[in-house]
Every structure is written in structure tokens, then in C-alpha cells.
Amino acid sequence: MRNIRAIIVDDEVLGRSRIRKLLSGYDHVSLVGEGKNGQEAVKLIEDYRPDLAFMDVEMPDKDGFQVLKTLDESAWPFVIFVTAHDRFALKAFDVKAVDYLLKPFDDVRFERALNSATEQIKMKDESLLNAQLIRIMDDYRMKVQGNPYIISIKDRGREHKINIYDIVYIEADGNYLKLQLEKERHLLRATMQQMQEELDQNCFLRIHRSVIVNVNYLKVKTYKGNNEYVFKLRNGMDFISGRSFKEDIDEFFALTGAS
């Protein structure tokens, strides 16, 4: 568990002293500041950004609730309210207080409140860490892979960037693949297997050892017999599927619900 930075704000000297003494018994908590009124509480939170605040409710200048309302919620520390009055308890939990210590409290009750705060701080840290790791990994993927939906093709010395979803069909042509778009065609040096592994499996279907179609451009699919289908595309092209691909074709349309 990392070190927790805490502040104490109470207009009573004895109240601050009591909490300070109790905190000295916990190695994972560091006291970074003390205050005696609401204005000092705001300054302590703004200056030190503590993880945890032990704060009285009734104080000069601003009460504990006004302190929080003065600050942006993103800057709020976890708060354990410490007070001699129980009438503020419900309001305390409205501002997401960790606990509400009613004076006088014993060491056991204090430890329970601190443990609760420690656990919530830990959960927040883990959540922030996970979010940070996700951002780092996403940034890394983008740097390494670039846009996963764009492929770059060099044709006669010029580079063309193609959105894979604009591809109507792909057809093998020797050591190359013909990538047919609605209004243009490009050649890419690659194998059908390599291309198939890169494509969105929800949109692209290999229907023959030499043909992959984008089902978004499919006009009609008709069973021809002998384990073969006729695929008619919206651009007028027809393809007959390979017999060995029937099972894959049937499974694809069963899973996607396409027709």
C-alpha cells in the first residue's frame, strides 16, 4: 500500500492532537498539514492535494460541507468527518464522506474508519492505474499499427491509403491480390491467408481459395447446388463459391444473421 497523505482540520486543539496521536501509529499515513477553520482547510487541500482529510463539520469561516462546495469535486480528498453532533450524518454521506466519527470515539472506531478510507483510496488508485495502462496500450497500438482500418499500397511509386471497408472484393492474381473498390482497383503483394487474417471477420468472407468478398456489397446469395453458392455483388460481379467453403459460408451467415 502506498503512503497516504492526510490533513486534519478542527478548530479544537485537543481534537487535532487526538487524531495526530492516533495517526502516528500507522506507518502508511503521513500527516502533511493541519488547519483550524474552513479557509485553512480549502488552502490545505489546494496546496497539498491530500488523499484523506479528517475534518470537523462546525468550524469558523466555512463548515466542512462549505469547504467541499468551494472546491471542484475532482479535487476533493476522501473525507472522514469528525464531530460531536450526529445531526449532520446524513448530509455527510450526501457528499460521499468515507465515514462519520462521532466524538468521543475510541481507538477501535478510529481504526475502522481509517481502514475504510485506506481501502477506498486503494480502489481509486487501481482504477486510475488501469485507465492509465489502457491509454498507454492504445497509444502504443496506434504508434505501432497506425490506423487498423487503413492499408497503404504503393502503385507506380505513389502511395495510396485505402479504408478496408471500401473494398468490394479481393481476388488472387499470381503473387498479388486485386483489391477492387467501387471506382478503382489496386494491386497488393500479399497472400490470401495474410489478407484474411487482417480483415474484419464480421464483414469479409472468403468464399473461394482465390476470392474474398465484403458482404456489405452483397446483393444476393443463391444456392447453386453441389455445395456451391452464387454471390452476386451490387457492382454486377458474380462469383461462384468453392465447394470446400460451404461450411464456412453457412456458419458465417448463421452467426451474423446476414442473408
Keywords for this structure?
single chain; 259 residues; alpha/beta; Rossmann fold; OB fold (Dihydrolipoamide Acetyltransferase, E2P); 2 domains; five-stranded parallel beta sheet; five-stranded antiparallel beta sheet; 7 helices; 15 strands; 36% helix; rod-shaped
Protein architecture, described:
The protein has helices at 13-23, 38-48, 64-70, 89-94, 107-145, 192-198, 246-256; strands at 4-9, 29-35, 52-55, 78-83, 99-102, 150-155, 158-163, 167-173, 176-181, 185-189, 204-208, 211-214, 218-225, 228-233, 238-240. It is of the alpha/beta class and 259 residues long. The protein has two domains: 4-142, Rossmann fold (3-Layer(aba) Sandwich); 150-256, LytTr DNA-binding domain (OB fold (Dihydrolipoamide Acetyltransferase, E2P), Beta Barrel). Helix 2 packs across helix 3 (64-70). The radius of gyration is 33 Å and the shape is rod-shaped. The mean pLDDT is 87.
Topology pattern, helix = H, strand = E: EHEHEHEHEHEEEEEHEEEEEH
Strand order of the largest sheet: 2-1-3-4-5
Percentage beta strand: 25-35%
Number of helices: 7
Biggest sheet record: 5 strands, parallel
CATH class of the largest domain: Alpha Beta
What number of structural domains do the residues give?
Answer: 2
CATH superfamily of the largest domain: Response regulator
Task: Specify the overall morphology.
Answer: rod-shaped
Number of strands: 15
* End-to-end CA span: 56 Å
* Class inferred from helices and paired strands: alpha/beta
Rg over CA atoms, rounded to whole Å, is 33 Å
The CATH architecture of the largest domain can be named as 3-Layer(aba) Sandwich
**Mean of pLDDT:** 87
CATH overall fold name of the largest domain = Rossmann fold
Poorly predicted regions are none
**Helicity, as a percent range:** 25-40%
